[in-house]
């Protein structure tokens, strides 16, 4: 038994010496399914070597930290080298409310990342705040990538539906049928918006059609007023990239439908 303990101690000391020789003084250890992945003896020797240990770090956090520090995670002690380390001026544990977090500042070669600390009274509030923040950041990203906006509230879908329906009347055969069906499928979006808002979808879609016929191309659903209004005046706008990607995923027309030969000639 003494021999096993002695060999374990020597093995741990060898690992600590390699870590120390590489110049590492802060060690982030990923969370493991093994309870004894980090033993008390190893923590003791690391503390004596003046190496700060942060254990049970989640895998996605490890990935984020490596991107921030511009370094690579090390899976094997034999690969522990100076050129694989990240560098920062200060790593400290600070109190935030009733909990504690590890704060890394003064990163030498910082990657293109940012940290946002989300707090809440319970986990449900935190999760909802995180989702809202993620949606807001995605909207900003879409606006940066494609810097113009279009009307919301189902206005583009109604306008495209009417334009396509008028175009379908000029065609014949299968092409006319396909375009007409696609035009009707676009009306599902404002119909669903009205239905989810507790409004009468049939009357709302009919009202929007009438408004667009009169030339009000930005007329969309105003949930607060319960009717169709100019969405541009009410700040009811969407990023064009967001609108395009969301509608593309819905795929109103089946992939099995034949694409009309001259569909690309008309905007």
UniProtKB/TrEMBL annotation:
What InterPro entries does UniProt report for this protein, alphabetically? Chaperone_TCP-1, Cpn60/GroEL/TCP-1, GroEL-like_apical_dom_sf, GROEL-like_equatorial_sf, TCP-1-like_intermed_sf
Is ATP-binding a UniProt keyword of this protein? yes
Top-level taxonomic group: Eukaryota
Ranges annotated as biased composition (Basic residues) = 243-260
Give positions of region: Disordered.
215-267
Q: Which UniProt keywords apply?
A: ATP-binding, Chaperone, Nucleotide-binding
Give yes or no: UniProt keyword Nucleotide-binding: yes
Tell me the GO molecular function terms: ATP binding; ATP-dependent protein folding chaperone
Q: Which family does it belong to?
A: Belongs to the TCP-1 chaperonin family.
This chain's protein is named: T-complex protein 1 subunit delta
From what organism does this protein derive?
Panicum virgatum (Blackwell switchgrass)
């Amino acid at each position: 038994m003494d021999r096993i303990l002695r060999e374990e101690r020597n093995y741990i000391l060898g690992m600590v010496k390699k870590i120390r020789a590489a110049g590492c003084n802060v060690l982030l250890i990923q969370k493991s399914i093994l309870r004894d992945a980090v033993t008390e003896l190893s923590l003791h020797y690391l503390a004596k070597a003046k190496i700060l240990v942060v254990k049970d770090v989640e895998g996605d956090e490890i990935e984020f930290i490596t991107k921030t520090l511009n370094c690579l995670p090390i899976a094997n002690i034999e690969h522990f080298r100076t050129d694989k380390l990240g560098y920062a001026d200060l790593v400290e544990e600070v109190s935030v409310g009733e909990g504690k977090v590890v704060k890394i500042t003064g990163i030498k070669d910082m990657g293109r990342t940012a940290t946002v600390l989300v707090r809440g009274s319970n986990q449900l509030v935190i999760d909802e705040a995180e989702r809202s923040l993620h949606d807001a950041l995605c909207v900003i990203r879409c606006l940066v990538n494609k810097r113009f906006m279009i009307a919301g509230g189902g206005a583009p879908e109604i306008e495209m539906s009417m334009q396509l329906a008028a175009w379908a009347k000029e065609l014949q055969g299968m092409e006319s049928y396909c375009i007409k069906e696609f035009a009707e499928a676009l009306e599902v979006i404002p119909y669903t918006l009205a239905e989810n808002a507790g409004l009468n979808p049939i009357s709302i879609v009919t009202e929007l059609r009438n408004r667009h016929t009169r030339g009000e191309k930005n007329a969309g659903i105003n949930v607060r007023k319960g009717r169709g209004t100019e969405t541009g005046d009410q700040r009811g706008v969407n990023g064009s990239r967001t609108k395009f990607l969301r509608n593309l995923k819905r795929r109103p027309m089946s992939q099995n439908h034949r694409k009309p030969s001259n569909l690309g000639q008309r905007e």
